[in-house]
From TrEMBL:
<dbReference type="InterPro" id="IPR036977">
    <property type="entry name" value="DNA_primase_Znf_CHC2"/>
</dbReference>
<dbReference type="Pfam" id="PF13155">
    <property type="entry name" value="Toprim_2"/>
</dbReference>
<dbReference type="GO" id="GO:0003677">
    <property type="term" value="F:DNA binding"/>
</dbReference>
<dbReference type="GO" id="GO:0006260">
    <property type="term" value="P:DNA replication"/>
</dbReference>
<dbReference type="GO" id="GO:0008270">
    <property type="term" value="F:zinc ion binding"/>
</dbReference>
<protein>
    <submittedName>
        <fullName>Toprim-like</fullName>
    </submittedName>
</protein>
Amino acid sequence: MNIRQINDELAITDFLAGQGFQPARKNGLDWWYVSPIRAPERTPSFKVNIRLNRWYDHGTGEGGKVFDLAMRLHRTASIREIIQLLASYSFSSPSTAFHSVRAQESFGHSKSPARETDSPTTIRVLEAKPLEAGSPLAAYLQHRGISIETANSYCHEVSFSIGERQYEAVGFANRSGGYELRNSWFKGSSSPKDITFIDKGTDTICLLEGFMDFLSLLELRPHLSHTSSFLVLNSLSQLGKSLEVLAQHKKVLLFLDQDQPGRRATERLLRSEPNSRDVSSFYRSHKDVNAYLMARKGRAKQLRLGLGHR
């Protein structure tokens, strides 16, 4: 499958649903979302036209097709990885809103409103079980710098389906029963999308964007597992849901990403939450905590190899 086929066959609304994003409102052919590519907003300004199958973000002036959106959401992934991600969705069913509109137009009913139907690309969780040492998922975590011992307390091996196809991924549960799902080529989430609050009963809480950063922080600073609670957003679009939890703690430590949306969210919290403190200086030259951990472990490996050749 190539990029043109992906853009022609995959509805943007289905891709967003598979990533855990649902429309805030529907206005005819225009579905409006809280922007998935920017810091959280009060008024949804990310529009998807289900007839054209095009998206437009009024906050940034960006727009395009589904492949453009996937590249924007997964900026660290290669083009090959994006193609693998999008090709994992099943395109066999014509029941999506995008294809429904196409069918209506083919029979001369272009003015009829699109009906909301079940998405063939919805992620359905089949089973969750403990991670196994030596498995491909354990190897994936090790590549990310995370030990199976660290991950086992918070993650599962999750079997899930997209259409008729079945996959496995590292699963990280949120407070509403949905899962963030990661493997070497896939990044998505099952519904419902929500934050993850790991309550240790402490006055201090660490705020992170994703669970890979959370696990990386435990690798770097294992003592925090005993002295701090944790709140993982699972997406910056969930930041608004975190404010009530953050307000219950005397000290909020911010470990957000170093990209523009992450820095904007950090600055917003520093202004609005007097008990918050930005503690990201140690990974300032990297995108996030996990990128710093991987770079640090990579340097350590190079040093060991260098010493071994002396």
